[in-house]
Amino acid sequence: MSVISPLKTELWQRVYDICQQEADYLKVIPTHQFVSALTDLVYKQAETSAMNMENFANHANRTTILIEDVKLLTRRNEDLNEMINNFAEHINEKHDEH
């Protein structure tokens, strides 16, 4: 059995949950077609992001994706980049404690 099907099913559920929360706030009703299209968009973006990070690692002659690769990927989205940097700092602090 392929891992993609359960992954896409779980992703669809998460996208649906977020759509429902936003729909309640906006007083709209998202269709299943909308949720499916948005899920496909999110999935394709995740695939592209994974490929880009893999390429960053390969370019540096590494087989492992590092936090620096994630930071490089998010550099054009200031809010997301700030969140990633804060998360990385938190991880480094936890690592230093041990």
Describe this structure as you would to a colleague.
- The structure is a single chain.
- Helices cover 80% and strands 0% of the residues.
- By secondary structure, it is mainly α.
- Helix 1 packs across helix 2 and helix 2 crosses helix 3.
- The radius of gyration is 17 Å and the shape is extended.
- The model has no long low-confidence stretch (mean pLDDT 94).
Considering the chains and any ligands shown, give keywords for the structure.
mainly alpha, 4 helices, DNA repair, chromatin binding
Briefly characterize the structure.
With 98 residues, the chain is mostly helical. It is built from four helices and no strands. The longest helix has 28 residues, at 32-59.
Write the layout of secondary structure elements.
Blueprint lengths: L3 H23 L5 H28 L7 H7 L4 H20 L1
Helix pairs in contact: 1-2, 2-3
DSSP summary: helix tally: 4
Q: Are there runs of 5+ residues with pLDDT below 50, and where?
A: none
In total, the number of strands is: 0
**Share in helix:** over 70%
Structural class, from helix and strand content?
Answer: mainly alpha
End-to-end distance? 39 Å
- Main beta-sheet annotation: none
The residue-averaged pLDDT reads 94
The SSE order reads HHHH
Portion in strands:
under 5%
**How would you describe the shape?**
extended
Radius of gyration: 17 Å
GO cellular component, one term: FANCM-MHF complex
Family: Belongs to the TAF9 family. CENP-S/MHF1 subfamily.
GO molecular function: chromatin binding; DNA binding; protein heterodimerization activity
Keywords: DNA damage, DNA repair, DNA-binding
